[in-house]
């Protein structure tokens, strides 16, 4: 999230919180695609991390991109922490360890998504290369220790850094040493949201397996294919993971609100300053927990919107749905992730087929799969079948859904062209993480350093 929200509209009843989510409903003709991707900046000379401040730094890159793009600076105190396109068509933000994120504009087709990514990366290279800085797209920091990873001067991250060790063993690794690709999709009604939430939660472990790209930690194999996926198993289980309630027949906006109300808060913003609120839930905040402690103690819609952005389930509900299971990856994977989900979720026939395929998957099965995938990826099993075989079927369903959308590029290709990366994984029977391990054990001679040169953007 590039910018925390300021909206002083007072909240008087929890029904207003569900109504806020419901405003996301829109006609299918207005459905859009929003793609987000993160990458690790590094100095090409020695593959070391890039600091926030200095002549060659994260802040210098942001300043250079501001000049080239004409976007508005996002500030936290005196520090530039992101950029926003003036008309709301995209933003650039920083993750805690300096991971550079593009939150793309809401666009109609996957062709537009990929052009947007191309433009972003071209501008980024033009600014960063004279500084000797490159960018790496993988799911986990392959070399740097936590203590040598830079920390961005962003107030919400200071609060999270203090809080994370209290609620899980891997929260700081999540913050500082992981990257992801995400796609945001729309829904037409509460019932449509319910179907998409349930289906995408079932298939999120498959996405983790297909996009696994984090087999290294501190320069060595970590025994996993998606270290990032494993990190989320013990980051903060009050606010992350699989939402069992989303499989209930009556699940809807109100049920999600009830869950969110009982998740501890991170902060509220008053007079431009962040106040640590990790000792109360939003429900307690609504009940007046801060009355007498601060003057503006009443909850606002800005507080609620910011709270929603601090919840981390595998599929997150805002006024759209966020698919959160994939590791970061190369440019082709930035296009492949939205093609996978749009093909499944934006065509009625594809959704029907995917629901039929997963109809017998129990909640316990999905939890087990989610636990096994970081280590086994496509070798994990569901219903007596490997995820490789399941993935082959699901990708074909997505392909049919994309072809049915009939959005063609100038060469007459449908959006299904972006599934080619996943087709290659299925054909080779190996994930990107397994490819990297083969290189490490082969011509890289037990070093992760060639990864930076060979797979930078």
TrEMBL record:
Q: Which top-level group of life is the source organism from?
A: Bacteria
EC code(s) of this entry: 6.3.2.2
Query: Known Pfam families for this protein?
Result: GCS2
Q: Name one GO molecular function term.
A: glutamate-cysteine ligase activity
Keywords linked to the UniProt accession: ATP-binding, Disulfide bond, Glutathione biosynthesis, Ligase, Nucleotide-binding, Transit peptide
Q: In which pathway does it act?
A: Sulfur metabolism; glutathione biosynthesis; glutathione from L-cysteine and L-glutamate: step 1/2
Query: What catalytic activity does the UniProt entry give for this protein?
Result: L-cysteine + L-glutamate + ATP = gamma-L-glutamyl-L-cysteine + ADP + phosphate + H(+)
Keyword Nucleotide-binding listed:
yes
Q: Which InterPro entries match?
A: GCL_bact_plant, GCS2, Gln_synth/guanido_kin_cat_dom, Glut_cys_lig_pln_type
Record keyword Nucleotide-binding present:
yes
Recorded hits in NCBIfam families, A to Z, give: glu_cys_lig_pln
Q: Which family does the similarity line name?
A: Belongs to the carboxylate-amine ligase family. Glutamate--cysteine ligase type 2 subfamily. Belongs to the glutamate--cysteine ligase type 2 family. EgtA subfamily.
UniProt function note: Catalyzes the synthesis of gamma-glutamylcysteine (gamma-GC).
The annotated subunit structure for this chain is:
Homodimer or monomer when oxidized or reduced, respectively.
Question: What is the designated name of this protein?
Answer: Glutamate--cysteine ligase
Q: Which organism is it from?
A: Martelella mangrovi
């Amino acid at each position: 999230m590039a910018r925390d929200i300021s909206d002083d509209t007072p909240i008087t009843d929890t029904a207003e919180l569900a109504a806020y989510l419901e405003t996301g409903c829109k006609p299918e003709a207005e459905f859009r695609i929003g793609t987000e991707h993160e990458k690790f900046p590094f100095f090409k000379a020695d593959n070391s991390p890039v600091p926030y401040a200095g002549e060659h730094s994260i802040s210098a890159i942001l300043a250079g991109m501001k000049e080239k793009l004409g976007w508005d600076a996002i500030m936290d105190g005196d520090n530039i922490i992101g950029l926003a396109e003036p008309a709301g068509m995209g933003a650039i933000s920083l993750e805690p360890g300096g991971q550079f994120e593009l939150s793309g504009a809401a666009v109609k087709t996957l062709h537009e998504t990929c052009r947007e990514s191309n433009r972003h990366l071209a501008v980024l290279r033009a600014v960063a290369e004279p500084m000797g800085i490159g960018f790496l797209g993988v799911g986990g920091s392959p070399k740097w220790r936590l203590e040598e990873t830079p920390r961005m001067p962003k107030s919400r991250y200071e609060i999270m850094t203090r809080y994370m060790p209290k609620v899980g063993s891997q929260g700081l690794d999540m913050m500082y040493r992981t990257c992801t690709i995400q796609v945001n999709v729309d829904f037409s009604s509460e019932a449509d949201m319910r179907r998409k939430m349930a289906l995408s939660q079932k298939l999120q472990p498959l996405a983790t397996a297909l996009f696994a790209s984090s087999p290294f930690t501190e320069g060595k194999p970590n025994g996993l294919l998606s270290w990032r996926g494993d990190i989320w198993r013990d980051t903060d289980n009050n606010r992350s993971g699989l939402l069992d309630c989303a499989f209930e027949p009556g699940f809807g906006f109100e049920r999600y609100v009830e869950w969110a109300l009982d998740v501890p808060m991170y902060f509220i913003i008053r007079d431009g300053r962040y106040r640590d609120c990790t000792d109360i839930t939003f429900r307690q905040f609504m009940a007046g927990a801060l009355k007498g402690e601060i003057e503006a103690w009443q909850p606002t819609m800005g507080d609620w919107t910011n709270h929603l952005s601090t919840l981390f389930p595998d599929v997150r509900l805002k006024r759209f749905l966020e698919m959160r299971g994939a590791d970061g990856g190369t440019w082709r994977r930035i296009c492949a992730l939205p093609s996978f989900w749009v093909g499944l979720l934006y065509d009625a026939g594809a959704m029907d087929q995917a629901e039929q395929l997963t109809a017998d998957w129990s909640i316990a099965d999905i939890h087990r799969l989610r636990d096994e995938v970081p280590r086994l990826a496509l070798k994990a099993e569901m219903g007596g079948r490997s995820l490789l075989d399941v993935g082959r079927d699901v990708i074909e369903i997505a392909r049919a859904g994309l072809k049915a959308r009939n959005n063609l590029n100038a060469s007459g290709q449908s959006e299904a062209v972006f599934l080619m990366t996943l087709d290659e994984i299925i054909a080779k029977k190996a994930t990107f993480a397994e490819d990297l391990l083969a290189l490490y054990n082969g011509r890289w001679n037990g070093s992760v350093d060639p990864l930076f040169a060979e797979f930078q953007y």
